[in-house]
Design a protein that fits this description.
mainly alpha
Length: about 300
Amino acid sequence: MMSSAEFGQQFINALSLGSIYALVAVGLTMVFGILRLINFAHGEVLMVGAFSAYFLAQIGIPFPIVAVLAIVATVVVGVLMERVAYRPLRGAPDVSLLLTSLGVSIALQNGAMLVVGTQPKPFPTPDALAGQIPLTSGVQISTVNLITIVTALVLMVLLTFFVTRTMLGMQMRATAENAMAARLMGININTVIVAAFVVGSGLAGVAALLYGARVGRAQYDMGFIPILKAFVATVIGGFGSIPGAVLGAYILGFGEIFLISFLPDALTKYRDAFVFIGLIVILLLRPQGILGSTEPEKI
């Protein structure tokens, strides 16, 4: 039986992990909601952010500036990805966009291998993030986990305000609902799509910093696990639904952490298998995801 202290500790760990998944999943579902594109290269945007932080720290730039520049780098990569790889295929069959995203992902991974090699690089986590904060008897929260949770919650609130209260955010919602009608209403579809990539890539940049500080390293394939888990989260919550992506991310984070706690030691290495079994059960019971999904028209 898990003690209250152990439960509290695992609850914090699950909240932190779910927050990272949520940051990646929101960017993934924003692009899907507008373009019907499952952008598997979104994980490599995270990888670019982590390596940008590594190289910038190597030349002695203070970490706060490193963080800002790393996020800017992910935004630039996301915008270039949209302009070079996806815009020329606008209106093509969905499978063409999917294969293109896989190609971009492989190209970025191989490019990273050529530049930095296959050996992991130490992530430049500042000393201020390495401490532990005692909450109650037997329960501690690491500074990284605390910042991860607070940052994710703040960004989710700001994103909600952006999507529901700003003109650009409402244009994004209108485009996701009916692209043709949005165009006829005078909405600039290109601007909306670029905005989705900017916001999504920026969130991936934040996730890169938090995930890099959590695992302590940067490597060429570090985006694979987060994008895979973000994909699962969006399927659980409902593709095209931002609240669904966030809900699915936290369900996944809690499921993983508490599975590790309850499973016998011999089975903990199979936790991903149990996660995907749970995903199959959810899809059998509710194929559209917990909060449903949208089917936006093609642009």
